[in-house]
Amino acid sequence: MKILLLGEYSNVHHSLATGLRALGHSVTVVSDGDGWKDYPRDVDISRQSTGVWHTIRYLFRLHRLWPRLRGYDVVQLINPVFLELKAERILPYYKSLRRRNKSLFMGAYGMDYYWAKAGCDCTTFRYSDFNLGGELRNTPDTECFKAEWLRGGKGELNRYIAEDCDGIVCGLYEYYASYTAHFAHPEKLAYIPFPIIIEPHTPDGRTPQPVRFFIGIQRSRNAYKGTDIMLAALERLHARYPESTEIVKAENVPFEQYKRMMLGCDVILDQLYSYTPAMNALQAMSQGLVLVGGGEPEHYDLINESRLRPIINVEPSEESVYSQLEQLVLHPERIPQLKRDSVEYIQKHHDHVAVAQSYLRFWKQQ
Question: Is the peptide bond before 210 cis (omega within 30 degrees of 0)?
Answer without folding.
Answer: yes
